[in-house]
Amino acid sequence: MNIRETDRPTEAIRSRILDAAEERFRTYGYNKTTMAEIATDVGMSAANLYRYFNNKQDLAAACASRCMGARSQILREAIRQPGLSASGQLRAFVRGTLQYSWDNTNKQPKINELVATIASQRQDIVHEKIQEQTALLAEILAYGNQSGEFEVDDVIRTARALYATLTLFEVPLFMSLYELEEFERLAQDVVALLIKGLEKRTH
Question: What is the predicted pLDDT for the residue at 50?
Answer without folding.
Answer: 92
